[in-house]
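MODEL INPUT / OUTPUT PAIR
PAIR INDEX: 1
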Amino acid sequence: MDHPEGLDAILRPRSVAVVGASRSEGSIGREILRNLVALGFQGPVYPVHPTSEHLLSMRAWPTVDAIPHPVDLAVIAVPAPAVRDVVEACARKGVRGLVVITAGFREVGAGGAALEAEVVEIVRAHGMRMVGPNCMGVINTDPAVRLDASFGATLPLTGGAAFASQSGALGEVVLSTARAVGLGISQFVSLGNKADVSGNDLLSFWADDPQTKVVLLYLESVGNPRRFARVARQVTRGRGKPILAVKSGRTQQGAAAASSHTGSLAGGDRAMGTLLAGCGVIRCNTVAELFDVGRGFCSQPLPPGDRVAVLTNAGGPGIMATDAAIHFGLTMATLGDDTTATLRAALPPEASVQNPVDMIASASPEQYRDCARALLADPGVDALLVVFVSPVVTHPPSVARRIVEGVRAAGVEKPVLACFMGRALGDEGIALLAEAGIPSYPFPESAAQTLGAMARFQRWRAQDEGRPVAFEVDRPRAEAIVGRARAAGRDWLDGAEALALLDAYGVPTVPSARVTTPGEALAFAERVGYPVVLKLDVEGVVHKSDIGGVKIDLRSPGEVKGAFWDLTESLRAAGIDAAPRFLVQRMLTGGRETIIGAVQDATAGHLLMFGLGGVFVELMKDVAFGLHPLTDADAGRMLRAVKGWPLLAGYRGAEPVDVGLLEQVLLRVDQLIGDFPDIAEMDLNPFVVAPVGQPSGAVDARVRLT
């Protein structure tokens, strides 16, 4: 009989060996063995112990090699120095999957890292897959598998949420909290050091796992960001499964070292946020939020839109729910006339039949049923949030039953979330709602936040994915420019080189020339026409305006000659010992200043940036980021995401700028960094864009190579 390969051998094994099984109470080996039995693993379990013949009433074997039957998965919990020999024995035995619980590898220093590398070499040489080392284990609650190969103290509930955690210490908290809030787990994997199996591997596996409906991640890093983006989009857009993630390390200070505007604005947590948003991943701020939102996704359909109705028996919580709904990006549904007539007939005169619908404190279970049905049947309502505050005269379980009846009677695929406040009186009602798949939250804000995340995911899935665009470019010319800088040992291209690189990729630039004498500058000005701009173009001067290195609107030979003298003095005053070099340009007048940039982030890969340009970019910080590679639809969304978009689109009757050109420039820069991934930072600041038919172009550019 064939045995499972790849991650199937780890998460869907037909047999499991526990190497390091023990009879000592509280030992990890004993807990793993006990959990396998307690969850009811649907295959044979083989304890491996050097001296014991039986453990937990099961026949034990001295080594993996001695087991006379096939073994799919080996869970290894022996001291670190013994792990290498055990892995070699597993390779000889033909074991396909390993979960190495043992710590003492890369996380402890160079010696541990070397041992880990040896283990990985054996694993890969024999085609095995390994979770860990230094992990808590793996779980699969599928009734056909029922695998708990972990040392957690909590048996999970069966459900549709797959969970991957890079923190082993968080594992037990995850399992116990999930059980406490009623979130069922499909599979759980503690990744540990991620020496072999990564989070990206798990995302690929869960994309096609029929038991998994939603993926929950606790991330410290994403490994290969390009692969993460590709696989995450396969899960979210391709399979329609939401990914919810908590990403630690929000306070990185890497942006402080960035030299370009794009690098400083994209640094730290913003890059990771761009990566996750670009893949449709719902980012959660806390693990508690992760569970709250996960319950909604696991149990309810996605809303067709963002219009929510609130049904309550208390005015204060209704207002709380309304405020939270607006805060989390929802809109309050406008109820149809037929709906309000139905509500008015069902409720006393004192009740409010506008959204939020306040039935007042005397609302009966039957009124909850009738009003819930009417609201869900309204075509202008996409989701329903039911709030119940338990008064003395109303029986919470009866309210819960009638809510379920009303939802079923409506017969529509819309999400319904509940908020039963005052749990001491409402626990039984909450349990009845949970049995019907309606999650309840202690406060309206959590429920509204969950609905907001569900609506946001639905919008992301429905938006135009767009298509990749490739332009004809002069790549050999670009390679020559980069090659010359490399040969000279320079990380930064000078201004003329940067503009020439852009020109090679079809990005409009202003007419420019590198000059060293006033005579050369005057000859350029006579050729292209006044006014002109003169700039320092000296290695080591990145932000020229900081040292007075730019002279604009030069309209005569005398002004050009004077600018040469002033810029040379500025260089000397700044203490920069370099031969003065200059860039002279035709001055662009009119148009809007924008910034277009790219940056390579260590955690998220290459990002593109667009925003308002010039000296205001760092002051205003009105920028939008996109994830490389962009589609044409991505470029359009980036432009419209900045607050200054109305200024570009034609604010108060002004003529709009050439939006199509801006989109094309973003896509050309995106193609450039795809062809030259060693571009670490790039700024086109400003890129002056004018209305259609008028001159537009990059006025200044900076490019840094890794």
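PAIR INDEX: 2
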Amino acid sequence: MATLAKDHGTTDLKAAMAAIVGSAHVRDDADALALFSEDIWSVAEHRVALIVAPGSVAEIQAVVRAATGAGAAIAPRGAGMGYTGSYLPAEAGTVALDMARMNRILAINAADMTVTVEPGVTWAALNAALKAEGLRTPFWGPMSGLTSTIGGGLSQLNAMFGAGQHGTTSESLIALTMVLADGSLLKTGARGPDGDSPFYRHYGPDLAALFCGDSGVFGIKAEITLRLMRLPAHEDYVSFSFPDGASLLAAMAEVARSGIACETCAFDPGLTKVRLKRASLATDVKALSSVIAHEKSLGKGLMAAAKVALGGRNFVEAGDYPLHVIAEGRSAAAVAADIAEARRIAVANGGHEIENTIARMIRSMPFPPLNSMLGPEGEAWAPVHGMVALSQAPRFFAEVSAYFAEMQPVFDAHGIYTGFLFTTVSTNAITIEPVFYWPHGYRPIHASAVEAPHLARLPKLPANPAATAIVGDARRRVVEICESLGGAHFQIGRSYPYRASRDTASKALLDAIKREIDPQGRFNPGGLGFGSNA
């Protein structure tokens, strides 16, 4: 398929897009094009040609028709918090879809326990609206939820809040309205008497699942309906420290099997060192204010904040592995029983209890500012991850750790340092996320997300392509280790070998679906391995 020519074709398409969404919602200025052509990890070889922001389902349909009619590739973008090249232009003439205008909560149906949103709604905005009704989605967002969107969460999949008991974003999904490459609509699920009130997902084959974790290669998410639950009446927090990664992962696996934690979060000594380099909790007024506000009374809030401030950040030994467990439920007794079981599991696996400062902070301020996407001295930051079976997590961690130890002289020579984040997903998986920091200056994507006062305090480091190349090789090696264990990934984009890892029959079926709903291959070419030589 011929791609859009850069000059005359782009000019004509810009005019056509402006006629659909209004000229104010079509951009081609250099700064915007640069921002939409990079993610946290990399800068694309090509720049997007146009950025178009539709404001309704009908406008998405018309924009898609215009773009595919002109032969342009389409790259849908949420908040831009990805690190796997998922929304980056793979060819010249690509049209980036900016979903920021599609940010309305369309319906909160407490009677049927559903909420329908547009794809550009952030997790923070959704949770604020639902909290006022005493409601929540079972999975309720990643830590980047201040800006990360529901549409991005479904396209990429993510985990954190609620994931320990309720799984990932897709497992809270009821129904989707999708725009396909010809501009037609595809609606999934049982949808009520008016055909537009989704309430149940599994009516025959699960078509909605095709579009979960698809990195935008199968269509554009126009409306999303999620399950609701009532806000748990009680919650509590407990934290532990373990002497090594094997003990930590054994405890996390048993916590997952027991189903007692709504979410878990653990770190290695590398991330503990990073935490200690950042500002003290005792001086973080915003953080302490969130602790106070989260409690049900001012007195309890002040007591909790005082405990956080006094606990500070120095209660974990430098070489230990801290685990933070959050439990929730309908009764205080049930939550207490879950916390007691967490304590039993931790002690049985060599852990000891520490101050629950971080666990409390995680719940009181679930969507913090995105300042941690840079290192404490302005370093570049990039994660890579793998999700493995509970029994395979120790081996995955051991093999990655051994590789990092082998690479340590090279890392040291280039100023690269690493850490690990661990979390559980439902009762059957652990996500292990190695993160890298290295001396390389921040880019427009960071300037757009990090708080301006924080950014101003950081040094602007020069570019460091040599260190970046080493980090790139290390990320690929982590992926290889995960693949050798039959692992899985979120945020597949163009970084994880999804299509190449599928069996012959699965590839054939996926290719047939892609040909049927996107015959010209204009949705995110290269994503998931489609449109590439994978």
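PAIR 2 NOTE: The chain has a mean pLDDT of 91.
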